Amino acid sequence: MASDHGDSVFANVVRAPEDPILGVTVAYNKDPSPKKLNLGVGAYRTEEGKPLVLNVVRRAEQMLVNDTSRVKEYLPIVGLAEFNKLSAKLIFGVDSPAIQENRVTTVQCLSGTGSLRVGAEFLARHYHEHTIYIPQPTWGNHPKVFTIAGLSVKTYRYYSPETRGLDFQGLLDDLNAAPSGAIVLLHACAHNPTGVDPTPEQWEQIRQLMRSKGLLPFFDSAYQGFASGSLDEDAQSVRMFVSDGGECLVAQSYAKNMGMYGERVGALSIVCKSADVAVRVESQLKLVIRSMYSNPPIHGASIVAAILKDSHMYHEWTVELKAMADRIISMRQKLFDALQARGTPGDWSHIIKQIGMFTFTGLNAQQVAFMTKEYHIYMTSDGRISMAGLSSQTVSLLADAIHAAVSAVV
Amino acid sequence: MASGMLSLTCPSSSSLSLPHHFKGGAAAAGKPKLLNQASVFGKRFVNTESFTRTTMAVALNVSRFESITMAPPDPILGVSEAFRADTNEMKLNLGVGAYRTEDLQPYVLNVVKKAEKLMLERGENKEYLPIEGLASFNKVTAELLLGANNPLILEQRVATVQGLSGTGSLRLAAALIERYFPGAKVLISSPSWGNHKNIFNDARVPWSEYRYYDPSTVGLDFDGMIADIKAAPEGSFVLLHGCAHNPTGIDPTPEQWEIIADVIQEKNHIPFFDVAYQGFASGSLDVDASSVRLFAARGLELLVAQSYSKNLGLYAERIGAINIVCSSADAATRVKSQIKRLARPMYSNPPVHGARIVANVVGDPELFNEWKEEMEVMAGRIKSVRQKLYDSLRAKDKSGKDWSFILRQIGMFSFTGLNKAQSDNMTNKWHVYMTKDGRISLAGLSSAKCEYLADAIFDSYHNVS
């Protein structure tokens, strides 16, 4: 009986391991060493190693909290309308014909994860193909999101360990072999975890191949503006696909580019062939959302909307965003230089070639474990480090650790 | 935006001007070659003689989502959409359960405003919360529910995970049931909140109903309830409303709760509480938690979903929690870890803002007391409009019809007993918006409007069948 202390209805529930990515921070927090370094989760840190709330975000938040006319009534199921409209313009471009023709439905979701999940649930219910191709490797949470939504997950070649770059031919071959209509997950920019992106020419080839096979693109855009420092440049891959008049899904996150991590702000857009289809699609998205959490949280989305719609704040944002992107680019250079200076064996140029928050170092799990144990440096076991977690002070520590790991552990 | 329906809810959306500072679009891109659709699809169809040029043209422009049908509007949230579209000046929104002041304005609690100001002054960061949510929130929410000195909490037998208000917390529990109790059914009261079935359907958890509402007495069908709970397969999850049953407003008495607990224990069922109105029903947080505490005190393992939408007016912040009371601290640790595994592929980690507000209000003795006072005012206003509505109906209705159920029901809602046709009449003739099951939200009623509402109910009940 459940009422006996010894017996539980949960007796067969085993303890789950910590999430591999978020678990890195859990382990880091437990470490008492004063020299510890957290290069695990992709959250931006300042040069002083502190989390950053953008000035423009603080200002927007202040405005909102001090506005006594504001209320906390339920948002519509699809979220804050203004936010949705502005998000679509941000990713698709203000002149986007798809938007002007009302062919885009955009719904506010819980950051990138929530947008991916809602999109996946929608596809599992309403799309005839239930296989999604994800790049190898990809963000650790991707396969879980798609699987639990009812899609079956396959991979396409992406990263070449030999070149530490894109296995472009492998990518093309695998997408070419995919069944017509299959869903394909694409990282819009700053591929996570590798930092390796296709060139514009390669994107064009991918687009042509996908359209010829009727493959359905599902973009994950978590780093718009954060990768190159330019919002428009980082949206090119998405806009290229939308310009050809075809359909696609786009999951947007404001976690990194607006530093809204904990507020869970994002949007799912589905670009459809016609306005009529978009209306029907939106109505079905609402059913997915209603049974999951009814309607999305207002706070973060209001902040984002306030910034996007005001030209001064928008400009201020682009400046702060570029500063973050530039700091990361400078950390890349510093780390590369430090490894060169130490004569660390191997070719480390991928550190400056890769783009975005992360570097796929090429270190193996044993080397990573060594760095954690001996140097209290925390990263995911695939060798991914968050450059956003580095500072000029800590670069030399990291370089020492990499040097030691590469020399001592093979 | 693509939605015709949306224009009802956000009239400003069509008048949003294009911000001039948005650069880019196709112009900045270096326009990619427009897909020559004819040639791409031509390749595919070249060997298929049966395809005419017309068919090809149709095939070129067909959406992959062409066959998707229009989903019906949400029966509850759709009511507010319809209300907003109505231009009649007498209109009254008694649809969704959101508290309104006597002036029929939305209400942000003073303690919430104070908490938000404090948070702003402290300049807190916006880092990711852990998957299980804000630790200080999880602590206070479990204490609020069970009592701070509850041995269950001291023994660490309660697994608490921050969830997206009530819905999100229920969904996490449903996902846990689906994975760890395959085939187990959830028993839902008839009627219940409309979204309960959606949650379990989409989580692929089977459900069945137990009798609850007795239309002949406009009260609780207690014998039916007990019989149906007894008849269910052992180890079923019994979904119970902690207080202020939605939509009926009819709660079991303390004595009835004891009997319900007896039956649940006998059948090794698992109690699953939905607590969306703690403090809001009677005005007392402790009184409204007594059903949950009764079950917990018996040593039963149970699930409790909490929401702060109504009692702290945090509707749009989506703040709640799923609590699992387990027989041991070890079980609680394991269960919590598995709930985290279900939250991660849903939204990774929950939103921080609402959680901080709750933690600040409940964790500060002064704010907590102030909150209790504001809650008493809200619950008090609802009790007083119940009285006024009843008095108005009694004055109007000399037919002998007993309207006293309005006074016996508790919480935000009243189940009027009106059928669908009568409810439609309420809307079509009187511009009173409510859900088709006859539920009205008293939180949306002002004392000034009680007469009008009484007229509408009287007319619908007696003149429409």
UniProtKB/TrEMBL annotation, chain A:
- Entry-linked InterPro entries: Aminotransferase_I/II_large (IPR004839), Asp_trans (IPR000796), NHTrfase_class1_PyrdxlP-BS (IPR004838), PyrdxlP-dep_Trfase (IPR015424), PyrdxlP-dep_Trfase_major (IPR015421), PyrdxlP-dep_Trfase_small (IPR015422)
Q: Taking every annotated instance into account, which residue ranges of this chain make up the domain Aminotransferase class I/classII large? A: 35-402
Q: Which PROSITE patterns match?
A: AA_TRANSFER_CLASS_1
Entry superkingdom: Eukaryota
- The answer to whether the entry has keyword DNA damage is no
Reaction(s) catalysed by this chain, per the record, are: L-aspartate + 2-oxoglutarate = oxaloacetate + L-glutamate
Q: Which residues form a coiled coil?
A: none
| Keyword set, alphabetical order | Aminotransferase, Pyridoxal phosphate, Transferase
List its EC numbers.
2.6.1.1
Name the coenzymes or cofactors required: pyridoxal 5'-phosphate
Note the SUPFAM superfamilies from the entry: PLP-dependent transferases
Q: Does the keyword Transferase apply?
A: yes
Other notes: In eukaryotes there are cytoplasmic, mitochondrial and chloroplastic isozymes.
Q: Which family does it belong to?
A: Belongs to the class-I pyridoxal-phosphate-dependent aminotransferase family.
Subunit architecture: Homodimer.
Know the name of this protein? Aspartate aminotransferase
From TrEMBL, chain B:
Instruction: List the Pfam families.
Output: Aminotran_1_2
Q: Which GO terms describe its biological process?
A: amino acid metabolic process
The reaction(s) this protein catalyses = L-aspartate + 2-oxoglutarate = oxaloacetate + L-glutamate
Homology family: Belongs to the class-I pyridoxal-phosphate-dependent aminotransferase family.
Name of the gene this protein is made from: LOC113707352
**Keywords, comma-separated and alphabetical:** Aminotransferase, Pyridoxal phosphate, Transferase
- Signal peptide positions are none
Give the enzyme's EC designation: 2.6.1.1
Subunit structure, briefly?
Homodimer.
Q: Does the keyword Transferase apply?
A: yes
Q: CDD domains recorded for this chain?
A: AAT_like
Please share what else the UniProt entry notes about this protein.
In eukaryotes there are cytoplasmic, mitochondrial and chloroplastic isozymes.
Q: Does the keyword Transferase apply?
A: yes
Query: What is the protein's given name?
Result: Aspartate aminotransferase
Required cofactor(s): pyridoxal 5'-phosphate
UniProt domain Aminotransferase class I/classII large: residue ranges:
90-457
For this UniProt entry, the molecular function terms from Gene Ontology, in alphabetical order, are: L-aspartate:2-oxoglutarate aminotransferase activity; pyridoxal phosphate binding
Which organism does this record belong to?
Coffea arabica (Arabian coffee)
